[in-house]
């Protein structure tokens, strides 16, 4: 439940920042009923609680007429008066004291040029401000704070303003018509210069002109590459043994021949004496 509430509040804040140009730190314009409710339900510090709801730092404001109204309510609202005096003063040009409802209505005006979030417990005042396009409204319920979602009239006004911005103004329409006239004139000049050529031939001639301006992005085509010449090289046949191996074989053969002992045949001595 808490996560859904937070998402709903962030969606409302995103609507006012996108469509009406609200920026942080957000300015909160409080009346006496809202300040008194914060104290009674101990929602303190108030700026931290409101910044958690809006997801951005805030600065709280009030007016001199609100202070005068709290002062007139007597001792029961003395603590609320002391807290309200610590808030930043919003510009209020009323020489004579007005009610908080009239004072806040004059400060907000028809367009809320100061981009105030209005915080009040007055139900009628909340409904009144929801009819003004760029006025987000806050209120408290027991020890919880709530941000009113954008009303139907606020959403319709934002949609109409977006459609108005998307339309062409008079200057843009004039520039577009002049550009169209110039393109028609160039086509007529081309027809006069090349009366016997068709449109296809003209396009071919234009495309063959060497200019630095390109109408379309030209991509380089990859050409078919041949095989690697090193991979196609034939291997050499080893018909002859290496010279070093041949010398080693000859040395081995000479060592073997030297190692063999020569056998001598001797005649027997008896044979020699017999002959004598």
From TrEMBL:
Annotated GO biological process: rRNA processing
Basic and acidic residues: bias regions: 247-256
Residues in coiled coil: 154-181
Major place of residence: nucleus
Domain UTP23 sensor motif region: 219-237
Gene Ontology CC: nucleolus; small-subunit processome
InterPro entries, A to Z: Fcf1/UTP23, PIN-like_dom_sf, UTP23_sensor
Molecular function as annotated in GO: small ribosomal subunit rRNA binding
CDD domains: PIN_Fcf1-like
Location of the protein in the cell: Nucleus, Nucleolus
Chain's role: Involved in rRNA-processing and ribosome biogenesis.
Family: Belongs to the UTP23/FCF1 family. UTP23 subfamily.
Stated name of the protein: rRNA-processing protein Fcf1/Utp23
Origin species: Helianthus annuus (Common sunflower)
């Amino acid at each position: 439940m808490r996560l859904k509430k937070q998402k709903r509040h962030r969606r409302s804040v995103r609507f006012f920042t996108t469509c009406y140009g609200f920026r942080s730190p957000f300015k909160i314009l409080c009346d006496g009923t809202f300040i008194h409710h914060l104290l009674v339900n101990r929602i303190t510090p108030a700026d931290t609680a409101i910044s958690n709801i809006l997801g951005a730092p805030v600065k709280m404001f009030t007016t001199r007429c609100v202070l005068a109204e709290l002062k007139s309510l007597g001792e029961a609202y003395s603590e609320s008066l002391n807290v309200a005096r610590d808030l930043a003063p919003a510009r209020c040009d009323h020489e004579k004291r007005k009610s908080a409802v009239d004072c806040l209505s004059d400060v907000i005006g028809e367009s809320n040029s100061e981009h105030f979030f209005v915080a009040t417990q007055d139900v009628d005042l909340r409904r009144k401000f929801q009819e003004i396009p760029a006025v987000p409204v806050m209120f408290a319920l027991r020890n919880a704070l709530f941000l009113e979602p954008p009303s139907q009239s606020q959403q319709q006004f934002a949609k109409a303003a977006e459609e108005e911005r998307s339309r062409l103004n008079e200057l843009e329409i004039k520039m577009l018509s002049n550009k169209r006239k110039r393109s028609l004139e160039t086509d007529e000049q081309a027809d006069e210069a090349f009366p016997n050529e068709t449109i296809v031939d003209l396009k071919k001639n234009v495309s063959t002109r060497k200019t630095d301006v390109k109408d379309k992005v030209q991509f380089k085509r990859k050409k078919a590459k041949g095989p690697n010449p090193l991979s196609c090289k034939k291997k050499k046949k080893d018909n002859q043994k290496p010279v070093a191996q041949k010398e080693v074989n000859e040395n081995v053969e000479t060592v073997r021949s030297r190692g063999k002992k020569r056998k001598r045949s001797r005649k027997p001595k008896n044979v020699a004496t017999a002959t004598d």
